[in-house]
Amino acid sequence: MSERALRGTRLVVTSYETDRGIDLAPRQAVEYACQNGHRFEMPFSVEAEIPPEWECKACGAQALLVDGDGPEEKKGRVVGGGEQLTCGTGLLAGRGQRAGGQCLQS
């Protein structure tokens, strides 16, 4: 009998809870702009750490925070001739498996 009472009520799609009496966390709108001229806002909690970069909603390019600090420089290690390499640039520069293995271990 109870099987028939729930039949056809779309339990998966519909929520029977109400929003009454619920206090949402305070939000702030943060604006990003990409190199292609797209600007968009993202809502973040007031308590959240705001990322300096975000993926553009329109084109997928890297968008930077408007009126904010740029992305932090990645720390790499200094090798032989004094050039600073990150794991990715070490592999791209042809350092081979040895450099790749060191990056995977760290």
Describe the structure.
The chain is an alpha+beta fold and 106 residues long. The protein is built from 3 helices and 6 strands. The chain has helices spanning 2-6, 87-92, 96-105; strands at residues 27-34, 39-45, 53-55, 62-65, 77-79, 83-85. Strand 3 (53-55) and strand 4 form a beta hairpin. It is elongated, with a radius of gyration of 24 Å.
Average pLDDT for all residues: 75
Q: What characterizes the major β-sheet? A: 4 strands, antiparallel
Proportion of strand residues: 25-35%
Q: What value does the Rg take, in angstroms?
A: 24 Å
The tally of helices reads 3
Element pattern in H and E = HEEEEEEHH
Structural class: alpha+beta
Globular, elongated, flat, extended or rod-shaped: what is the shape?
elongated
Write the layout of secondary structure elements.
Layout: H1 2-6, E1 27-34, E2 39-45, E3 53-55, E4 62-65, E5 77-79, E6 83-85, H2 87-92, H3 96-105
Antiparallel strand pairs: 1-2, 1-4, 3-4, 5-6
Q: What descriptors fit this protein?
A:
two-stranded antiparallel ribbon, alpha+beta, 6 strands, four-stranded antiparallel β-sheet, 3 helices, 106 residues
Quick synopsis:
The protein is about 20% helix and about 25% strand. With about 110 residues, it is an alpha+beta fold.
